[in-house]
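Can't paste images in this forum, so I'm doing it all in text. The chain is below; anyone willing to post the predicted structure tokens underneath?
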Amino acid sequence: QVQLVDSGGGLVQFGEHLRLSCVASGNIVSLRAMGWFRQAPGRQRELVATITKGGVANYADSVEGRFTISRDAAQNAAYLQMNSLTIEDTAVYSCYADVGAEMIQRFWGQGTQVTVSP
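Text version of the structure:
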């Protein structure tokens, strides 16, 4: 089994920043892509950012240029630097990790709340 712990959420004001962390542990055979989804009340779940094993990042249009995803292979961790936060960024952010050599499984963190106030 693989456990993911995502953290770093909180309450910030408009325009401020936060850094989310996602650390994987357990039976990690091959850690592939990692990333974050977010979901706000009444809205569809949105893929925010992903990063491949090789470090290629992709972002939702809504966060492009403001968010930066990175990873530390030695720590089995990924990070999401979120700058210039807006009220629309308020959501529960959940990290995921794709693990496996032949059969790939997706594991999830418990989610962390990000709240941006006016």
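The longest strand covers residues 18-26. DSSP finds no helices and eleven strands in the chain.
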